[in-house]
Amino acid sequence: MKKCITVILLIFQLMTVIAQNETGFFGKVVDMKTQKPLQHVVVSIQNSVVMKLTESDGTFKLVLQSEGNQLLLLHSQGYKDLLFPIKVVSGEMIDLGVLVLEEDNQIGSEAFMISLSENDLNDDNSSSENTSGLLQSSRDAFIQASAFNWGQARFRMRGLDSQHATMTINGVTMNKMYDGRPQWGNWGGLNDATRNQEFSVGVATSDYTFGGILGTQQINVRASIYRPSSRITFSSSNTNYSFRVMATYATGLMSSGWAYVVSAGKRKANEGFFEGTNYDADSFFMSIEKKLNTQHSFNFTGFYTPNSRGKNSPNTDEVTQLTSKRYNSYWGWQGGKKKNARIKRVEEPVLMLNHFFRIDDKTTLNSSITYQFGKVSNSNIDYQNVNSPDPTHYRKLPSYYTSVYAKDQGEYPGSFIPDYQNAKKNEILFITNSQINWNELYRANQMLTTNSIKSVTGYVPAQSSYILYEGRTDDKTISFNSNVNSQLTENIFFNGGIAFRNLKSHNYQLLTDLLGGLYFEDVDLFYKGDQSQSDLKNPNRRVGVGDSYRYNYNYLANTIDFFTQFKFTYRKVDFYLAQAFSSSTYQREGLYQNGIYATNSFGKSKKVNFENFAFKGGLTYKISGKQWLFINGAYLTQAPTIRNTFPNARLNNSIVDGIESVNISSIEGNYIFHSPKIKARLTGYYSLIKNATQTSFFYAEGIFDNGAGFDNTNAFVSQTLTHLNKKNIGVELSFEHQILPTFKTILSVAYGQYTYDSNPNVVVVDNARVSLENSNPVFNFGNATLKNYKQPGMPQQAYSLAVEYRNPKYWWLGTNINYLANSYIDVSPISRTAQFYINPKSGFSFPEASPERAKIVLKQEKFDPIRLLNITGGKSWRVRRKYISLFVSINNALNKTYKTGGFEQARNANFRRLDQQQSSGTPSFGPKYFYGYGRSYFGNLAINL
Predict the structure, then answer these.
(1) Would you state the pLDDT for residue 21?
(2) Whole-angstrom Cα distance, residue 30 to residue 164?
(3) Integer Cα distance of 549 and 602 in angstroms
(4) Of 88, 181, 371, 681, which is least packed with CB atoms within 10 Å of its CB?
(5) How many other CB atoms are there within 10 angstroms of residue 923's CB atom?
(6) H or E element, residue 149
C-alpha cells in the first residue's frame, strides 16, 4: 500500500513539474455585446505558424516553444481583429482572462466592389472576371484600399491580371482553364457563406496550393467551422443591382456530429448605373458535414448562382459628346421596356465532396472530388444583307462626313474635303435614333401583303435578316484534389498536394430569337461558294430557334498539378521552400467542317502538351515582436491558356506556331511593423513575364502590301502576338495609426511602373485568302515596337488617405480621399509594325510618314488623373436580443467623371488612314473608352436572429 501511495505521489509530482514547465497562455473569448463565448476564433502569434481555435465554451490554450515579447492576434469571421502585445515567460502559463471581440460592421461593404476589367468587357468568350473579388478577403489596410477605394477605377494590385492569382474553395482550384481567371459570378451573392477566407499576397506561402505571383485566396466552406447563427441581409445600390436580399442559417457542429449551412439570395435591377444595364441574379448554397469520429469527416458542398447582366458599350469621344457618359448603344425600346441586345448569362453549379482525415495530431489530409457544369452565354444581334443595327455604326455618325479626304494624288494624300451639310444631317438622325430600333428589325424580317388593288393589308413572317443569338460555352469540369499538411518536427512543417482536372468545353453559336421571321440561312455572305458554308456536311441550312450555327467545336483539356512546400520556423528566422510540377494537354475537336478550312476544321486537332516547373522560397527575419523583414522570390513556367493556344478556334484546328510556356520571375521584399496602435507595411516588388501569347480579332482597312506579294484589300483578320514580355516594378505602403481608441487614420500608397518589355512578333490570319494552295494564310508582319509602352487598363499610381471614427455606442463614420494616376489606353500592335508605314497601292513607304509625325500619331494616350471622395458609416443595435447592423457608403461623392480604360481601334491599319483620321479632328474610328461610376451608394442592413 505504501509503495502504491508513493508511486501515485511521484506521478502527481512529475505531472506538476511538466505542467510547470509548459510555456504559453490561456484565456476565453466572448462577444462584446452578448458576452456569449465564441467558438472557432483563430488565436495565433502574429506572423508565425502557431495557431489554435477556441472551443465551444470560448476557451483556448496556446503552448509555445519560445519566450519573449510577442503579438497575439484573435481573428474571427464578422469581428474586428484583436491585436495586443504579450510577454511570454519560460515555464509559465499566463492567464489572459476574458477577451472580447467587437462585431465588424464594415464587412457589409464587401458585397458590391466586384468590377470588370477591359478584358472582360471586350472578350465575349471569357467566362471570368477580374481581380477585385480576390482583394476583398484580406483585412490588410492596403488591400482594403485596393478593393474598396480604388476598385471603382479598375485598379489592379501590382498591375497583374487575376490569372496570376490562384482561387481555391476547400482547397480546390477554381481558376478557369480557358483563360486562367476565376469566374467570380459562380459564387456571387453568397457573401455570408463565403466569408471564411484566407489570403496570401504575392508569392508568400499557402497551405493549399503553390499559387501565382499575385497571391492565393482560399474560401473555407466546411460546415462545422460556421458558428451557429441566422442572418438576413437587405441591400440597395445604384451600380450593378438595385436591391439584394440574403438569408443564411448555420447550425454549427451538433452533438450528433452533423453540421448544416444553407444560404440563398436575390439581386436585381431593371437598370444599373449605365443606361439599359439590367441585372438579375439568384444564389443558392448548401454545406452539410458529418463527423464520423475524431479522425474522419465528410462534407458536401453545392452552390448555384444563375445570373445575367446587360452590358454597356465603350464609346468614342464623338458619341459621348452627342449623348452622355452613361450612354449605352446596346439597348432599345420594345413594348415600352428597355431591351439590351448584349446579355451575359452565367449558370454553372458546383458540387463538391470533401473527406477530411486527421491522421494524427500533427497530420491532416483533405481529399475532394468536384464537378462543375453549366453554361456561359453572351448574346448579340446577327444580320445578313441589311444595314448594321448598331446606332453608333460609323456611317451613321457626323464624323463619316467630317473626316473625308479626296483620293490620293499619286504617292501623296488627297486634300481634306469635309461635308458639313451631310454631317449635320447625320447628327440630327443619330440624336433622334440613338438606340437600337427593335421594331425596325422585326419589320425587316417580315414581308408585305397586299390586296388586289395593291394596298398593304399587313405583314407575314419571312426569312430573317436580323436575329438574336448567344455565343455559348457549356463546360463540364471534373476535379480530383488531395492536400496533406503535417508537422514533421517541432520546427519543420510540410504541405503537399496533387490535383487533376478534366475539361470538356462545348463552344457554339445558338440562335435564340428569329425576331418575327421564319428562318435564318447559315451562310456567310462575305464569302462565295463552299467558303460561305459553316458546315460542308450540312450545306445551305435554314436554322431556327434552338439550332446551333456558324461555329461548333469542343475544347478537350487535362491538367495535373503537384506541389510540395517545407516551412522552417525558429525563434528569429523562418524560411520556406516550395516546388511544383504541372502537365497540361489541350485539343480542339471540330464539329463542323467549315467551308473556308475544309481540311482543317472537322475532327480532332493534334494534342498540345506543356510540362512546367515552379520554384519559390522566402525568408522571414524577426527583428522583434513588433518588426519583421520578409523576402520572397519565385521562378515558374506556366502553360499558355487554351484561349491563346488556338488562335482561330471558331473556324479551324490551327495552333499558334511555335507556342511555348510563359516564363515568370518575381521577387518581393517587405518590412512590417505591428503594435497595438500602429500597423505599417512597406513592400517593394519586381516581376517579369516572358513569352506570353495574345490573340485578338478586328476588321482592318488597307492592311496588305502589294509590294510584299499580298492582295490589296480590306479584311477581317485574327492577330496573334508572340514573345510578348511584361515588366512590373513598384512599391506598396500602408500605414494605420490608432491615434485614439475611437479615432484612426490610414494611409495607402501604390506606386508602379508597368511596361511592355519586348517587341513581340505580329502574325495576322486573313480567312478570305484561303485556297487549295494556301490552306493557312498566315502573314508575318514582323515585330511591333511595343517595348516601353505602358500596360493598359489600370492606374499605375494610387494614393488614399482615410480617417475613421468609432463611437463606443456602436456607430462609426469614415471618409477617404483618393488620387489615381498614370492610366493608359490599350494600343494597337499592328500600328507599331513596319508594315503600317507601307502604302498598299505602291508597296513603298508613305512620304508623309516622318519619324516626327509618326511619334505624334502613335503616342500612347494617358488618361487624366482621378480624384475620388468616398464616405462610409454604420451603426449597430440590440433589439429584443436581436442584433441589427447598418452599413452605408457613398462612393465618388463629388460625382467626378473619369475614364477607367479604353482601346485604340485597329481598323485604320496603315499610316495614311490613321494620320488623316487624326488630322480631321473628328475620326470615324477614334479610340473607344469606358467610364467609371458617378456618385454611387450602397446600403446594407443585416439582422442576426
Answers:
(1) 64
(2) 39
(3) 14
(4) 371
(5) 22
(6) none
CB neighbours (10 Å) of residue 647?
Answer: 24
- CB–CB of 16/86 below 8 Å? no
Quote the DSSP letter at residue 147: I
Q: What is the CA angle 704-706-707, rounded to 5? A: 115
Which three cell numbers, joined as nine digits, stand for 42? 483563430
- Residue 273 CA to residue 127 CA, distance in Å, equals 22
pLDDT digits (tens, 9 = 90+) for 576-605: 999 999 999 999 999 999 999 999 999 999
Q: How far apart are CA 328 and CA 319, in angstroms?
A: 10
Phi, psi of 692 (to 5 degrees): -75, 155
Beta pairing partners, 804: 744, 814
Global pTM exceeds 0.85:
yes
In this predicted model, what pLDDT tens digit does every residue of 447-472 receive, in sequence order? Answer: 988 887 777 778 899 999 999 999 99
Give the closest residue to 320 by CA, choosing from 935, 918, 936, 930. Answer: 930
* AA identity, residue 213: I
3-state secondary structure 172-219: EECECCCCCCECHHHHCCCCCCCCCEEEEECCCCCCCCCCCCCEEEEE
Per-residue pLDDT tens digits for 395-405: 999 999 999 99
Helix (H) or strand (E) holding 57: none
**pLDDT band, residue 4 (cuts 50/70/90):** low
User: What CA–CA distance (Å, rounded) separates 630 from 673?
Assistant: 12
Q: What is the spatial distance between Cα 816 and Cα 449, in angstroms, rounded to a whole number? A: 65
User: For residue 362, what is its C-alpha cell?
Assistant: 500533427
